[in-house]
Write a structure and sequence with these properties.
single chain, alpha+beta, six-stranded antiparallel sheet, globular
């Protein structure tokens, strides 16, 4: 029956989780590359009079749970929590695993990148992605 094929293909998706190795690779990426660059961007934003924060809370993105995760909230002056954020995290239920980078310019999410291997995400790539995303959120908040 066709329902059996559909269930075999999609039904068990929610029960799957990324492998421990994939999650460990993401945690290394988060601690060695993502957090330091986000902290540098946050420091510069603070110097400019904004109030950015960084958190590791799980997120929902287009009904998909993202965890573990790291997020830079811009905290732009006069916009606060409405100024948007940039996140990187593992999409729960994707096998063998997927890292998603996205931004939210309230109320709209926008995918920045999908990565099959955390170890292939470079410092230079993350830095450029964050700078471009911050520019987009600044432009969005000025409208």
């Amino acid at each position: 029956m066709k329902l059996a094929l559909i269930d075999a293909r999609f039904g068990k998706k929610s029960a799957l989780s990324p492998s421990a190795d994939f999650e460990a690779a993401f945690v290394r990426l988060r601690e060695r590359i993502l957090r330091p660059i986000m902290q540098d961007v946050a420091s510069e934003l603070r110097r400019l009079g904004h109030d950015p924060t960084i958190d590791e809370d799980a997120k929902l993105h287009e009904s998909e749970r993202i965890s573990p995760c790291i997020t830079l909230h811009l905290g732009l002056a006069q916009r606060g929590s409405k100024s948007g954020y940039i996140s990187f995290g593992i999409v729960v239920g994707k096998e063998p695993g997927e890292v998603l980078a996205w931004l939210v310019a309230p109320p709209t999410p926008f995918d920045l990148g999908h990565y099959a291997q955390p170890d292939t995400i470079s410092e230079a790539h993350v830095e450029q992605l964050l700078v471009d995303a911050v520019e987009h959120l600044f432009a969005h908040s000025s409208t």
